[in-house]
Design brief:
heterodimer, A: alpha+beta, FAD/NAD(P)-binding domain, 7-stranded mixed sheet, B: Folate-binding fold, Sarcosine oxidase subunit alpha (chain A), oxidoreductase (chain A), SoxA_A3 (chain A), TrmE/GcvT-like (chain A), EC 1.5.3.1 (chain A)
């Protein structure tokens, strides 16, 4: 043996040395090594500092259950991954790994002072201590605690990696490719089932990888499964969560194990829907609980076997075993045969089988039955252990550099529990095993509680003559929870394991109690003097092991986070300098600044242009629904507040839509094209909601009505042409429509062509000016727009955006549903009672308009506000009070909903919802804003052209 | 992710294709204006919140677009059955 690398054995490729770095130092391992095995082979025992006490920690396990050796890997800018398990990180050339939670260095860690002060840090310490003063939490306590306690650093740069994702369907999904999982796959392989076999490790085999006798079988099986066309094998893939109806989430690590890995997707998220699931997750060995069981060099005995047989690495040169289970004996026998020096076997039991004793004797290993380890010497590595007889406490010291522990086995029921399968307690193994399934799933192998490596006893803690309040016997190594903490929680009155877990943090966070849950339960059970089954079991939650946000997000980030809807005219707006805003996923031009203009100047210019000549606006995002059928008018009559039956074809009407509770939910101008055909418009954001609501009534309340609803939002590009010159501009371009005021009045629709393109031409106005909305098939939107821009040059046509549109409509008192209303506003509150058909016997929301709360006085009502200082533009959302001299907290009677500078009027204007506002006309209200409280007079909402003279021209 | 059987498509599809639409079998009164305040309040606002079997409406919104009824267990989140709108309560 050279150093800690065994002369022979293991599945590593000794012909392929690999250079890597850990904490800045260069090391050499072999292809096939994990970071843990390679560092152990180099004699490294110290891997990290613990979460709370900053105690030195080494490797405890060999797989993803490792609670101690959490490390960070730096793959370059933005590619920093904290909290990886050293036992799961495959080494490759250039790997750059770091230990965590230490400062200034792993060996000399300032935070280790916490360990010396440990008696002052019991369970619930933070909750109890940092209570006062409250203001200290945010600035002092929390940042200090966060710096001292914790895991690795969160990455701060944007992740440049690519993450793939896919859906998969199969008849049989097998999770875990140990012997049991492989057997299940071989058994099903001959059928024509589609099979997916998932394993988190880099190769198939699971526990068999540490058992050279099984390698020939493993190779034959691997070949058979690889050759089978109906079997998909996913290695380096963690099934992290089990969801409803056999839906399993898994992440496949594609490139992290490769030296040059920045071009391909880093990870791939698999969403698998399986007919049947077989869980073969295996079992995890349980640590034993005794003073100093977290010292570097103390580890699970099964892990030592994996390091020796799979990786050819000796965990020590002089190894002792503390065991409560036969499996520990088998492990050290295997180690001895692999060339690892075994010092002693200490078994807590008084009797073990003679076969074990004979084999120990044959291998020349000292055996101490009915003994326990009561202390571990050494800080950064075990130097010796103290053992005691369990009856008379007579002790001895054994010099060794490694102590293995074998406390029995815990079936991995994590995914089974995610699927809500029930569990049953099995006393003889001291563990919960799968009982009744909740999905089409079964457990096979060790995770079902069946194993063939002998028997053992379950001990909550090893016997010790020491004062129990002065020892550090760890239960949850990752969260730094000791047996003492759990007993303290019980003494302080916690009874349910769910509460004990939250108070002590046992089994929480990324570890999910893989090595700690059952020991914690046993200790709580003893402390409470109740059977384990009476104190409950905490829930296992996904993910089984931590997964990256990148894998879960996949491609859905940045511009692909959600779809951006664009109109046919969007490209023109972009080319002409529009500033955009997102409105319900639509990208809309907000304003079109000219050289040197800010938003304010651009909006003022755009508004003035509309009022003085003509403006052009992309209104394509308006929701549109085609309502067709013999009962179309009857249907709309029932949906909207206004009467629709008498509307003549060719005419338009403003429609107000309530929910059944009487509150405004949408509005829009709609046109009757024919007796049985309407062209509805909705708000931009309300289109899908309105269609859903109409379908609901049509399908479920009035299925007798013969009506068809079709969303046509995306079928039409809509160009609003607004301003006194709109007709003059339009006239030469339109055919088949008489545009004269008599033939085509306000609120009418005509069909014809514009620039040779079929159009539904509305004469409507959301600005108060003479206006048209030109509907053309979407694909022609930009062409017609550009033609209008060219023809409009002589009128100095001005494109305007949503911001100017908002100002123009506010000057005219037109509301925007969702801005000036909030889901609690009735037509009367909004001053829209004129739009309610008083004679209609019924419509959606009518009955609610007579509800006691709706007719009660003091409701918030929409009014206009004119500030006493015309230059003050109120903040939208600002609160309104009646008396600014009242004590704080003041009684707020409403808020500002819309507020703008009106260049046309040379002053500010606003809308507000004010309790009893309709009764306050001319009264003064007060609006406290940062720096000053402003006064404003309550007014009507129409600030410009109240008589509508500009519309009817 | 739950699979939901659409009684119109007669297929089990992932839940992302569907939208919940509240409690089922709450019919809009034929003549709302004749309803007392209490009756109208019950229709508008009062809903069951059972532990266990719950009748609710779903819409296959990203599929056929039809509203249908379902019986779902609110504890296990399992669908017992789904059936077309207008069919008797199950």
């Amino acid at each position: 043996m050279s150093g800690y690398r065994l002369e022979n054995g293991g599945r590593i490729d000794r012909n392929r040395p690999v250079e890597f770095r850990f904490d800045g130092h260069s090391y050499q391992g072999f292809a096939g090594d994990t970071l843990a095995s390679a560092l152990l082979a180099n004699g490294v025992s110290l891997f990290g500092r613990s979460f709370k006490y900053h105690r030195p920690r080494g490797i405890m396990a060999a797989g993803s259950e490792e609670p101690n050796a959490l490390i960070s890997v730096d793959r370059g800018a933005g590619r920093f991954t904290p909290n990886l398990r050293a036992t799961s990180v495959e080494i490759h050339a250039g790997l750059n790994a770091f230990s965590q939670n230490r400062w200034p260095s792993l060996k000399r860690d300032f935070g280790a002072i916490n360990d010396r002060l440990g008696m002052f840090f019991p369970a619930g310490f933070y909750n109890k201590t940092f209570m006062w003063p409250r203001s200290f939490w945010e600035k002092l306590y929390e940042p200090a605690i966060r710096k001292m306690a914790g895991l690795g650093d969160a990455p701060t740069q944007e992740d440049p990696d690519i993450y793939a994702s896919t859906y998969a369907h199969c008849d049989l999904l097998i999770v875990g490719a140990g012997p049991a999982g492989i057997d299940a796959a071989l058994e099903a392989m001959g059928s024509n089932k589609r099979i997916i076999l998932i394993d988190e490790q880099d190769e198939l085999g699971g526990g068999a990888l540490a058992d050279p006798a099984l390698w020939p079988w493993l190779e034959r099986s691997r070949k058979a499964l690889t050759d089978a066309s109906n079997v998909t094998i996913l290695t380096r893939t963690t099934a992290f969560g089990y969801y409803h109806d056999n839906f399993i989430g898994a992440v496949q690590r594609l490139t992290d194990h490769m030296p040059d890995n920045s071009d391909s997707p880093r990870e791939k998220l698999w969403r698998v829907r399986a007919g049947e699931v077989v869980l073969a997750q295996g079992a995890i060995e349980r640590p034993l609980v005794f003073d100093g069981n977290d010292t570097p060099g103390v580890m699970l005995s099964s892990a030592a076997k994996v390091f020796a047989n799979r990786y050819g690495a000796a965990v020590g040169k002089s190894v002792a075993l503390m065991t409560a289970h036969d499996s520990g004996w088998h492990d050290v026998f295997a180690l001895a045969k692999a060339g690892v020096g075994i010092k002693a076997i200490i078994d807590v039991r008084t009797e073990v089988s003679s076969a074990l004793l004979d084999e120990a004797n044959r291998l020349g290993i000292n055996v101490h039955l009915n003994h326990s380890v009561t202390g571990v010497n050494g800080r950064h590595r075990v130097t010796s252990i103290q053992i005691c007889n369990n009856d008379d406490y007579l002790g001895a010291r054994i010099d060794c550099d490694t102590l293995l522990m074998a406390g029995g086995w815990t079936p991995s029921v994590h995914l089974w529990s995610h699927s809500k399968g029930s569990l049953a307690w099995r006393d003889e193994i001291g563990a919960y095993v799968p009982d009744q399934p909740n999905e089409n799933v079964r457990c096979v192998g060790a995770c079902s509680g069946g194993w063939d490596f002998g028997s053992g006893v379950i001990v909550d803690m090893l016997p010790t003559p020491k004062d129990q309040s002065r020892i550090k016997a760890f239960v949850d190594f990752q969260n730094d929870v000791t047996a003492k903490d759990i007993k303290l929680a019980v003494r302080e009155g916690f009874r349910s394991i769910e509460h004990i877990k939250r108070y002590t943090t046992n089994g929480m966070a990324t570890d999910q109690g893989k090595t700690s849950n059952l020991n914690g339960l046993q200790i709580a059970s003893t402390a409470l003097a109740k059977p384990v089954t009476d104190i409950g079991l905490t829930s296992f939650r996904p993910p089984y092991t931590p997964q990256t946000f990148g894998a879960l997000a996949g491609h859905a980030k940045g511009a692909l986070f959600q779809p951006t809807r664009t109109t046919n005219i969007d490209g023109w707006a972009a080319e002409n300098g529009a500033v955009f805003e997102l409105v319900a996923q639509w990208r809309r031009a907000r304003y079109f600044p000219k050289m040197g203009e800010d938003m304010h100047a651009a909006v003022n210019r755009e508004c003035v242009a509309v009022r003085s000549s003509v403006g052009i606006f992309d209104a394509s995002t308006l929701g549109k629904i085609e309502v067709v059928g013999p009962d179309a008018a009857e249907f709309l009559n029932r949906m909207y507040t206004n009467p629709w039956k008498a509307l003549e074809p060719g005419r338009c009407r403003y429609g107000l839509l309530l929910k059944e509770d009487g509150f405004i939910t949408d509005d829009g101008v709609s046109a009757r094209l024919a007796p049985d055909r309407f062209h509805l418009t909705t708000t931009t954001g309300g289109a899908a909601r309105v269609l859903n609501m109409m379908e609901d009534y049509l399908q479920t309340e009035w299925p007798d009505l013969d009506v068809w609803l079709t969303s046509t939002t995306e079928q039409y590009a809509v160009i609003a042409l607004q301003g006194p010159n709109a007709r003059k501009l339009l006239e030469p371009l339109v055919e088949g429509i008489d545009l004269s005021a008599d033939a085509f009045p306000h609120m009418a629709i005509r069909e014809g062509t514009i620039c040779g393109i079929p159009t539904r031409l509305f004469r409507v106005s959301f600005t108060g000016e003479l206006g048209f909305e030109i509907n053309v098939p979407t694909a022609y939107g930009r062409a017609v727009w550009e033609q209008l821009m060219a023809e409009g040059a002589k009128f100095d046509i001005t494109p305007y955006g949503t911001e100017a549109m908002h100002v123009l409509r506010a000057e005219k008192g037109f509301i925007i549903v969702g801005q000036d209303t909030d889901g609690t506003i009735t037509p009367f509150d909004a001053g829209l009672d004129w739009a309610v058909g008083k004679k209609k016997p019924d419509f959606v929301g009518k009955r609610s308009m007579a509800r006691p709360d709706i007719v009660a006085p003091g409701r918030k009502q929409l009014v206009g506000l004119l500030t006493d200082d015309p230059n003050v533009v109120l903040e939208e959302g600002a609160q309104i009070v009646a008396d600014p001299r009242q004590p704080i907290p003041m009684t707020m009677i409403g808020h500002v909903t819309s507020s703008y500078w009106s260049e046309t009027l040379g002053r500010s204007i606003a809308f507000a919802l004010v309790a009893g506002g309709h009764e306050m006309m001319g009264g003064t209200l007060h609006i406290p804003m940062p720096g000053k409280t402003h006064e404003a007079k309550v007014s009507g909402m129409v600030f410009y052209d109240a008589e509508g003279a500009r519309l009817h021209v | 992710m739950i699979l939901i059987h659409c009684p119109y498509c007669d297929e089990k599809r992932p839940e992302i294709e569907f939208a919940n639409a509240g409690q089922a079998h709450v019919a809009r009164p034929l003549d709302p204006s004749s309803q007392s305040d209490e009756e109208w309040e019950a229709y508008l606002f009062i809903r069951a919140n059972p532990r266990g079997r719950h009748h609710e409406r779903w819409r296959h919104v990203h599929g056929c677009g039809r509203f249908f009824n379902a019986v779902r267990d609110t504890v296990t989140d399992k669908f017992e059955t789904t059936y077309k709108a207008g069919e008797p309560r199950r």
